[in-house]
Amino acid sequence: MSTPGQVVLLIGSPRGGRSTSAQLGDVLVAGLKKHGWTATTHIARTAIANPPAWSELERATAAADLVIVATPLYVDSLPAPLIETFERLHALRHTAAPPKAQRLIAVVNSGFPEAHQNDTALAICRCFAHRAGFRWDGGLALGMGGALSGQAITERGRTHTVAVTLHRAADELAADGPLSAATIQALARPMMPVWLYRLIAEVSFRITAWRHGARHLGAQPYAREDD
Amino acid sequence: MKLLILDGLTAEQATTMRHGVWLDALARARGWTPATLSLRTLTIAPCTGCFGCWLRTPGICVTDDDGRAVLRQLVQSDGVILLTPVTFGGYSALLKRALDRIIPMISPFFSTVNGETHHRLRYARQPRFGALGLLGDDDAEEAQTFRTLAARNALNWHEPRPAVALVRADADETATRAALQAAFNTAGWP
Ligand SMILES: Cc1cc2nc3c(=O)[nH]c(=O)nc-3n(C[C@H](O)[C@H](O)[C@H](O)COP(=O)(O)O)c2cc1C
């Protein structure tokens, strides 16, 4: 058993603590804490806009044994504030190499049901890890992120596999290992049939829009005059 | 044919990287009417992930800043080229801030493309999609990731033949023009 370390949870979602990303990250961190790890959580959007929050992120990252990036998929990639965070961290680490070996993993969740749609975003995280001097310990992809929105991840019901898999991931990380292929595959498994997810999502879009008083979801406010 | 160039270079990068100027000239010579938006000069807040642009004010982002003008100009163009330093295999933060704000261009409702879930389009006519990535060095993993990202974006854009070019950031005008000509030709663009 390796000695407990310090983990930095970096949340890429602009929705911060309310996001699916934060929920996934929190379960991983809870799993590491069981092994005696200490943790700090940082929100990319806050850090880039707020110098004290940035200093905290910078300090915590320099001291971390492991960084967990938890983020949604935005336009097949990472949300802009997370890219800016990567750019800034890379610039810092370029001039001053980290004092110890450090590891980085990422967990990316998408609105689309197919987990593999997150692969490019994970590749970007891997490229960042390589450039910024972290050991890349693997990436977790989860489709159907909308199904977890506002929903606690517990070992009961639909979230059972997600909870169990994230705990296994935390065990692997605490043992200083990379994420195993079995863990990565387990998280990528759909929580429900694709057709059902799409149906639920579209119905909930309509209900939310109705509540907001939006009646014409297909509006074309910027249409060209010649259309 | 209006071509929108979304320039995601910082002011510092723009002093040495003249690729946007060469792209403009090449597009003009091929019959396009190019317009460049230098994103560094605009005020664009990051997307908050609220989905108001789908479910509150359909088609319009709830944040009222230059992000709206970028979207309007994009929707009214015939083509777009993303100009960006390749950043960890993806787009620069500056470019991505504008891109995260263009999702009101698509519909919340789903369609199936290549057996995968994507969104339906909001507008009848979608601008053609392309990208010019500027590589800092010869990192093969980043080059491959950039090409994959542009291809994934093209799928979501319902763009069957994106015009994607990758050159070194220190490439000269001749090399850049050659890469762009090849990309435009492969995509079947004017
Ligand atoms: C600007 C924007 C872009 C998005 N792009 C994608 C995308 O390309 N593919 C996808 O599957 N989901 C996309 N989504 C959906 C989010 O990934 C999804 O809602 C996710 O569950 C949000 O997670 P969070 O709560 O951690 O922010 C996008 C959402 C937003 C707001």
Verbal overview:
The model of chain A has no long low-confidence stretch (mean pLDDT 95). Chain A is of the alpha/beta class and 227 residues long. Chain A is built from eight helices and five strands, in the order E-H-E-H-H-E-H-E-H-E-H-H-H. Chain B has helices at 11-16, 19-29, 52-55, 66-75, 93-99, 140-156, 173-187; strands spanning 2-7, 33-38, 79-85, 106-113, 116-121, 128-135, 163-168. Chain B has 190 residues and is of the alpha/beta class. Chain B has a single domain (2-187), classed as 3-Layer(aba) Sandwich (Rossmann fold), CATH 3.40.50.360. In chain B, the strands form two sheets. In chain B, strands 2-1-3-6-7 form a five-stranded parallel β-sheet, sandwiched between helices. Chain B has a two-stranded antiparallel ribbon with strand order 4-5. In chain B, helix 6 (140-156) links the parallel strand 6 and strand 7 (163-168). The interface between A and B is large, with 52 and 50 residues. Bound molecules: flavin mononucleotide.
Global shape of chain A: globular
CATH-derived architecture of chain B? 3-Layer(aba) Sandwich
Order of helices and strands of chain B: EHHEHHEHEEEHEH
- How many strands, which pairing sense, and closed or not: the largest β-sheet of chain B? 5 strands, parallel
Total beta strands of chain A: 5
Q: What is the element string of chain A, with H for helices and E for strands?
A: EHEHHEHEHEHHH
Structural class of chain A: alpha/beta
Biggest sheet statistics of chain A: 5 strands, parallel
Q: What is the mean predicted local confidence, pLDDT of chain B?
A: 97
- The CATH superfamily title of chain A: Flavodoxin domain
Radius of gyration of chain B: 16 Å
CATH architecture designation of chain A:
3-Layer(aba) Sandwich
Which strand order spans the largest sheet of chain B, edge to edge or round the barrel?
2-1-3-6-7
